[in-house]
Every structure is written in structure tokens, then in C-alpha cells.
Design brief:
Elements (H helix, E strand, L loop, with lengths): L2 E10 L3 H12 L4 E5 L5 H5 L2 H18 L15 H15 L5 H6 L3 E4 L2 E5 L2 E4 L2 E10 L3 E3 L27 E5 L3 H12 L3 E5 L10 H14 L2 E3 L4 E7 L2 E6 L3 E4 L1 E4 L3 E3 L31 E3 L10 H15 L14 E3 L4 E6 L2 H8 L2 E7 L4 H5 L6 E7 L4 E8 L2 H4 L1 H8 L4 H5 L10 H8 L3 H4 L2 H11 L3
Parallel strand pairs: 1-2, 1-6, 2-3, 6-16, 8-9, 8-14, 9-10
Antiparallel strand pairs: 4-5, 5-6, 7-15, 11-12, 12-13, 17-18, 18-21, 19-20, 20-21
Helix pairs in contact: 1-8, 3-4, 3-6
């Protein structure tokens, strides 16, 4: 007979979303069981956000040395030690890991089971020889790399985001399949660390972002020496000794390493969801606005629900679930102010509607732009390659914003607040921004909304009329 555990909430998955639910629920007095079959911290800590940004940090440091001469500084990049870069990346992971470890959560009162979970009933599952019965379940099993059905791919030694951070030598020539955030970030990181890089993209680079702003990123990557091939289809892949040969309809590319970054696949197929009466398909577990599955006692959170797959989305989802599962409040998720960022140089950050979506939904819109080349702080630091683009209704309600440029991920946050709080453009235009800061691009873009009326001939006539009276 297996051990039977009865609990208030059972969380399946120890990634960002699952850990947030487990910690919050436990600290609020609920009895919590957390099940994780692999590494605590999930994809974000071990294979995603943390190692990728650490690798980019190392790459950008090398690039800063190369470009130091622009400022009159005599600096030379003598060498890049790939082993030390590897050690730095894993040192960052190890520094954060204690926040997500088993011992910390057990210290909070969470019972952690290390094993694979499998439902055996609508409110019962099995894991590591134990049977767990819970009042509420939360599925937070995340996603894994999607491996496309390309002829020969299974027979070559390819990399994914789960293995590329284990490299201790710089690839001679890295071929990347995919032009989304992972592919683009890894392309620039490895190029700046000394590798030749070719990116093969089936459609368009960063296709979910505003094409006007993507142009800035594309031109910088090409300036770095990255070969980008868009709208190409890979026909076959073969391994020839130490080289990987990728054949497309138009060309043959030969590289030392291959990174597959063609999207994500949800981790739901091993849970026996049918036994729990939970509806799902290959793309996601189906949920309602309250993040409940077809079994209302079971919630799903983060990547496994499909849509935008970000750590901060999973963290937001955790709050929705806590309100529903613990406090029985009918809280609904609203992703209208959910931002996303690609952390290359320049960064590209967005929130809300893009130009195409805004036109479809609202018809007549206003588009506000301000280039970084007109920002004094950007000029002082030689970072003028960038643009802010804001979408509003004709009456000034903010619908969306995108920024490409230095620190775009930081600068977008004022627009996240504005959209989330349904502010009008005048709130940003009247903001007092310290001088000189990059943040002034937001104020300047917002202020341009009023330029046509403020400096119109009608306004001039009215001012001249008033001046007649002294």
C-alpha cells in the first residue's frame, strides 16, 4: 500500500509559477504538497532566463571592450576564456538556486515530493510511490523545446536551451534554427563571444514583435557579423565527422554546432490528464479566465497553458490562483498589460497592442514616435540606435507601446503601469523626468501627441489675441 497524503493544495511543478503558488499558499496557512521530478527552479533558473542573461552579460562585456575606442579609451580584448564564461553562468545559477531549493520550501512547511506525478482520479494523483489527495491541484509543469520533424535531425548531435549552457568551448560556427527570442539572444551572445553564427528562420525574425522595431535589432545583429536568413525551409540535416550540414531549398550551410530554437512544447503528456477529466491538446491545457481547467478543482499556470510563455506571466498567474483557490474569489486573469522583452543589444520591449492589432480593434489610432538619437543621455553614452513607438486612440487612451534601444526592458515599465491603470497619454506627457535620462524618450513621445494642436495656427491666433491685452 502506498502512503496516502491528504492536503489542501498540491502543486505539480517546481518552476517559477509553481514555487510562487506553493510559497504563497503555505505562508497563508494552507497545507501544501509540491511535486517536482527534475530540478527545482524549473526552466527559468536552470535553462532559460537566468543562464541566457548571464551569458549575454558576458558577451556584452566583451563587446564593450571592442567598442571602447569610440570613447577614446585604449582597450584591447586579448582573449575569451570559454571555460570561465561557463563557470560565470553556472555561478549565477548556483547563487540563485538556494531561493528555490527543497530545503527552503520545506522550511516554509511545504512537503516536497521529488518524482513524476500522474493523475489516477479527478482529485488524486500518484508520485514517488505516494498517493496525494488534495482539495485543489495546480498544474505548473512548464514547457520544453519543440523539436521539428526535419529529416536527419534525430541523427545529429544538436543543442537546445537545455544543453547549450553546458558548452565549455566557443563554437567555431553555430547554426541556429529559429528566430524567436531564444534564437536571437543566443545568436548575439555567441557571436560577441567569438563564434561565427548563422540563423535560419522559417518565417520572419522576431515575428511577434513590431516589424519597424525589429529592423533595429536585425541591423545591429548584421553589424555584429551574424548571417540571418529569413523565409527559408530546412530540408535535411546530416553529420559529417565533426561538422553538421544543414540543407535548405536554396543553400547548404556547414557548422560546428547546431542549436534548435524553433519554439516550445507544453509538458502535459505524462500526467494522465484524462484520469482527472482535464481537457488538453498538444499546444496547451485548456483553462478559463480564472485559470481553472475543465475539472474546476484543478488549475493550470504558466507555460503549460500556452500563449505568452514568460516567467513574469507565471508569477502573475500565481496571484490569480491564490485568490481563487484560497480565498474563493472569482479573480480573472487579464494579460492586457503583460510586457515581454528580448534581451539582445538593443533590447526590444513591448506591452499592449501593436499597430496592426490596434487598427483592427479601434480603427483610427495615433502613432507616436521618438528616436533615441534625440535623447541627450543616449548621445552621451553613444547609444543612439533606438526608437520608442506608442499607440493611442485618437482621444489619447494608451493602447500599446514598444521600445527598441538600451534598457528597453526597464523603460517599458512606465507603459505597463499606464496601460494597466488605463491612463491617458497626458499622464506620461506631464511626468517630470530627471535630466538627462533615457526615460525622457517616454515623456517626449507622449508629448508629441499634443504637438499638432499645441503649435497649430489656431493656437497661435488665440495666443496673439490674448497678448493684445498686455
Amino acid at each position: 500500500m502506498s502512503e496516502i497524503i491528504k492536503t489542501d493544495i498540491c502543486v505539480i511543478g517546481g518552476g517559477s509559477g509553481g514555487l510562487s503558488v506553493a510559497a504563497g499558499a503555505s505562508q497563508m496557512g494552507a497545507k501544501v504538497v509540491l511535486i517536482e521530478k527534475a530540478k527545482m527552479g524549473g526552466d527559468c533558473l536552470n535553462y532559460g532566463c537566468v543562464p541566457s542573461k548571464a551569458l549575454l552579460g558576458a558577451a556584452h562585456a566583451a563587446q564593450h571592450v571592442r567598442e571602447a575606442g569610440t570613447f577614446g579609451t585604449d582597450a584591447t580584448l586579448n582573449a575569451i576564456d570559454a571555460q570561465k564564461v561557463h563557470d560565470y553562468v553556472h555561478g549565477v545559477i548556483n547563487g540563485i538556486a538556494p531561493h528555490d531549493c527543497v530545503e527552503r520550501f520545506e522550511g516554509m512547511g511545504v512537503q516536497v515530493i521529488q518524482g513524476a506525478a500522474r493523475f489516477i482520479g479527478p482529485q488524486t494523483l500518484s508520485a514517488d510511490g505516494k498517493t496525494v489527495q488534495a482539495k485543489r491541484f495546480v498544474i505548473a509543469t512548464g514547457s520544453r523545446p519543440f523539436i521539428p520533424p526535419i529529416d536527419g535531425l534525430d541523427d545529429v548531435d544538436y543543442l537546445t536551451n537545455e544543453t547549450i549552457f553546458n558548452l565549455t568551448e566557443t563554437p567555431k560556427h553555430l547554426i541556429i534554427l529559429g528566430g524567436g527570442p531564444i534564437g536571437i539572444e543566443m545568436a548575439q551572445a555567441h557571436r560577441q563571444l567569438g563564434a561565427d553564427v548563422t540563423v535560419l528562420i522559417r518565417s520572419h525574425m522576431m515575428s511577434k514583435d513590431d516589424p519597424e522595431l525589429v529592423d533595429f535589432v536585425r541591423s545591429r545583429l548584421q553589424q555584429d557579423g551574424i548571417h540571418i536568413v529569413e523565409q527559408t525551409s530546412v530540408e535535411s540535416i546530416t553529420q559529417l565527422n565533426d561538422e553538421i550540414v544543414v540543407k535548405t531549398a536554396d543553400e547548404i550551410y556547414t557548422g560546428s554546432h547546431l542549436l534548435v530554437a524553433t519554439g516550445r512544447q507544453v509538458n502535459a503528456d505524462s500526467l494522465d490528464l484524462e484520469a482527472a477529466n482535464v481537457a488538453y491538446d498538444n499546444h496547451s491545457i485548456r483553462i478559463d479566465e480564472r485559470l481553472r481547467t475543465s475539472n474546476k478543482k484543478i488549475f493550470a499556470i504558466g507555460d503549460v497553458t500556452g500563449g505568452l510563455q514568460f516567467t513574469h506571466k507565471a508569477g502573475y498567474d500565481a496571484g490569480i490562483i491564490i485568490r481563487n483557490a484560497l480565498f474563493r474569489l472569482p479573480a480573472k486573469a487579464n494579460y492586457g498589460a503583460l510586457p515581454w522583452v528580448t534581451y539582445c543589444n538593443p533590447e526590444l520591449a513591448s506591452v499592449g497592442l501593436n499597430e496592426e492589432s490596434a487598427r483592427k480593434e479601434h480603427g483610427e489610432i495615433r502613432i507616436l514616435r521618438w528616436p533615441f538619437s534625440e535623447n541627450d543621455r543616449a548621445r552621451t553614452e553613444g547609444k543612439t540606435h533606438g526608437l520608442i513607438k506608442v499607440i493611442t486612440t485618437k482621444k489619447g487612451r494608451i493602447l500599446g507601446a514598444s521600445i527598441v534601444g538600451p534598457s528597453a526592458g526597464e523603460l517599458i515599465q512606465v507603459w505597463v503601469l499606464a496601460i494597466g491603470q488605463k491612463l491617458k497619454i497626458g499622464a506620461i506627457a506631464s511626468m517630470i523626468a530627471p535630466y538627462p535620462t533615457l526615460g525622457e524618450v517616454s515623456k517626449r513621445a507622449a508629448g508629441s501627441f499634443f504637438t499638432p494642436s499645441l503649435f497649430s495656427e489656431k493656437t497661435k491666433k488665440f495666443v496673439r489675441f490674448l497678448l493684445r491685452f498686455g
